[in-house]
Fold Carboxyvinyl-carboxyphosphonate phosphorylmutase.
Amino acid sequence: MSVTHAARRKLRRSLASGELVVAPGVFDGLSASLVRRVGFDAAYMTGAGVAASGFGLPDIGLVTQTEMTERARVLTGVLGDLPLIADADTGYGAPLNVIRTVREYEAAGVAAIQLEDQAFPKKCGHLPDKELVSTAEFVVKLRAALGARTDPDLVVIARTDARAPLGLDAAIERANTYADAGADVLFIEAPQSIDEIERIATEVPGPKLINLVTGGLTPIESTRRIADLGYAIAIQPSLPLGAAAYAMLTGLAELAGRDPAPLLPTKPAEFFDLVGLAEWSELGDRHRIEGV
């Protein structure tokens, strides 16, 4: 059995066991090495982390599929048989683009690929003003993804960002539609209270993923509580990246004789401002098509 297939089988066994998989965010060789060294059961390739650490960009859809695929290849090379759950944003285009994305990510050795129902260009799930494609459009893309994998053990995760623009009821309805379409794991992004986390656990069948972002919209619950609610995967995408950024900021500020406090972020938007969110947003507004 190849290392890649061993990683996929390992993740499949974990999902079947009912035990919670905790997957910290990885974004480069060092973070992947440390996650493996500490002994986690899986790692999560964070799109936000790759954008910020690899390219100095905010998580607003600026990184391409080929750039993400290459980073996935680096990470799987370091992780070996430790499963990598890989963020693939919207699939980078239409159903044909989704098919190529799945093929490239699969060839790069990921154990799971995550696709979301935002419109392109997407935004970090914990930023405002997200836009969605229709449920029907995403189901077509999801089915294209499911049909594109050549290894049936590759896990396909369907994420909906409907909570913020449409409300929790719509998000749950979308998640259940994606389950019916064949998604292996369901992911409702950014529930905003403990009650919402509990409702998702009760009303969405099958394996579920929860995203615990430091300073984000979702309350940070203990892994024990998340496991008791029946979630299959808990990703912590921002924890290693935030710790690294904090250390770099404080060290550099000390070197420069500056107070780091004004630069230290407390929520995702403030972190992305460190890599140009305000400037990129101004550019987007300047070139917005009237009426859109």
About this structure: The chain has one domain: 3-244. The domain at 3-244 is CATH 3.20.20.60 (TIM Barrel). The chain has a mean pLDDT of 95.
